[in-house]
Fold each of these.
Amino acid sequence: MAVWKARTALPVAASQIGCEGLGLLRNIILARILGPSEMGVFATLAITLSLLDMLSDLGPDRLLIQAEDGDREEFQATAQTLLVVRGMACCVLLVGLAMPIASLLGNPNLAWMIAALGAVAGLRGWLHLDCKRIQRNHDFRSTMVVELTSAGMTTAVVALFANHIHSASVFVWISLFQVVVLVCVSHVVATRRYRLAYRPEIASRLLRFGGPLACNSLIMFGALQGDRLVVLASATAANFGRYAVAFQLTMVPTLLISRITSTVFLPQLARNQKAPEKFAERLDQIVAVLGLVALSFTLSVMGTGNLAIEILYGSAFQVTPAVMCWLAIMQGLRILRAVPSLAALARADSVNPLASNVLRLTGIIAAATVGLSGWGLEAIVAAGCGGEVVALIGSALLLHRRQGIQPTAIWNSLSLFAAGAVFGWLTFAAGDSMVSRLGFMGLTGGILLVSILNFRRTTGSRYASTISTAVVETRAIVTDKGI
């Protein structure tokens, strides 16, 4: 059974990674053609559409999969009607807010672009949900075809669009092309005729299900994207374009690590939720693994982040070493923050991850304060790192209070991470001479070695079995993309 699930997971995981990879490739192509200033406007449009999409996401496709009667034609038709209504409402909202948003951002040219994005939101509402419905039977092929075809065809024409338009308005045309392909292919692969219907009892269930999801999406958007909103409000278009590129380059691997961590380790913890000693032992192992991953990832980004940007996007998109180091620390802390959330979810405690994201908003408030005070981009990202620390500590303390789980292993990993991050920051952001750089690199390497030894000591003889179990239990990432 586990082997069958792994075989099912592989193509779906490959599809998700493929879509993310194609999205990254599109941004690289556009960045090469447009340059930092236009990419800053491009990122502004992307954030606007993403924010509205998350705020209005009531999750009818997810309830269609989860509900016992989700296979009924009336259920699907009502869900599709709700999707159409959502699309029309978003279209009207974008058209109405186009001028105020453009005035707020001090760029009148944004008005028509934001209004045009209303067409994208409206067209998306006509998506055929049959590809989601058949996931009830663990059949993900239609969804894979829809998503990969849309991503692949859009990537194939993105250079053509950009070379003819030469401005950030290319985002509008690319988005229109992508949503048309997405909707058309969803209808082509469907096995059930497209219908719209309205059943009050079903609509009520969909709204009750989707209301909390929309509220949580707003919090998630603030926790994950709030820093970019602050930079958008306080930086030039060119600096925002550079920051958006660096942020995405560091965030994509972090999100993939977090999703894989959830699919691999959550079932392991859940199986032992009624055996406190085994639960604590497995949690210590997971803390050691993620502590090592977080520190290794952070140091790698510190040392090679700007080099990767130069190779992929061009030297015009490089950020200062200090900004790159703070971004690396922020993403490393996000990896660590998955630990208490996973432990809480394994015991059916969904309050912990929600509280963690709420606490993360403290970093956004601090970032807005320093950003609007003119302290610069480095201070904004540093404030965001502070928010991650507050969220991690608060989540660990809440785990102890609500579940009685001692956070000692989390404190140990956080201490090692902090020490490695400090010396890494001094090495790559503040070292002036070759001697100081070599010295700091040696200290950083020593801390990384201690982290590895802690990992080996904690996992002990069960290290091989833990990794083996993780490989077998890797499942498909079938949730909506959050980037």
Amino acid sequence: MNLHRFQLIFILFFGLSFHSFADENNHLSWAGCGITKKAFMKELASAYTKKTGVQIDLDGGGATRGIRDTVAGKLDIGGTCRMSLPGSEKSELYASLHPVAWDALAIIAHPSNPVNNLSMQQIRDIYTGKITNWKQLGGRDAQINLYIRRGKISGVGYAIRQYIFKDSGMEFSSSHIVKSSGPLEKACEKDPNAMAITGISSARKRKVKILDFDGKSPTYENVKNGGYGLYRPLYLVTSPRPSKLAKDFVEFASSSEGRRIIRENNTVPYLDAPQLMSKMLIYGFDVK
């Protein structure tokens, strides 16, 4: 019996995917949330490879891919910056989410932009098209080019709708629509009139201006102590039957060594601030 036929029999009778053989070939695949990837995954994966010899391939694709492709067995591990949403796709019910870090929504603009702070109401008015010019915010007389993510269930897009509008179906007023957080952040590096919201964990590694929100800056300490209100967890995702290698990597991410690496990348490890969850700010309640 050849190997291909042997694998097919395992899939049919035991519900295992080809990626379940990761223990055999010393290899893991990870994809998903671009913010998590840029924030610390490269460094975390590199340290794990050095420690264990296990090779980890990293790819993007967004939070939805991170959840659904992992459940489907296309990935060993996924990354997501939103909770699973079985209402949008039943398969997400079977995802196991493991919180590893705290991120915050960051308002970003071009480095030359003179505006330093936006209020909650101003953000609402920008996203609904009531404010369209930077002059209305104390800046230059120039149109606001608001960059947003495609769809309504991307990690950042979903969080904005919940935190700021408490309406997961909210429509945003923008013609600058991009497919992932990478192009969104790059636009704010190049476009003098750009504005966007992304994760602070990746924004820190870009040449952008990070604006204050309601007078608070998303510094490491402000995220850790909850002083900056727009925070959320970053998760690793595993399937209902993860390989031993996948489970070992998740454990490594939350170990003292893994937390040190996350801290060194200016991101707050989840276990460093568990009290944030008790403040009930994550994905706000009363959301439609």
Amino acid sequence: MVQRQMSRSLKWISAIVVALGIVFCLANLAEFNDGNLGLMVGIGFLIGGLQILLFGTIVPLMHRMQEEPDRKPIRE
């Protein structure tokens, strides 16, 4: 139950971070170079949001694998 809530909250946080990244990128797209701090922050938010989404998806799967009982292979 706690893992499901954590996963859901991480997905919402990642959506907010990605939305902020899109806003920053669109607001600072006029000067497309590496000296444009707003654009670089927006790209960082995009990458960070995808990382948060990835963690929110993978962590519950890892916990689920650890909680399953060990199964013995069937020998014929």
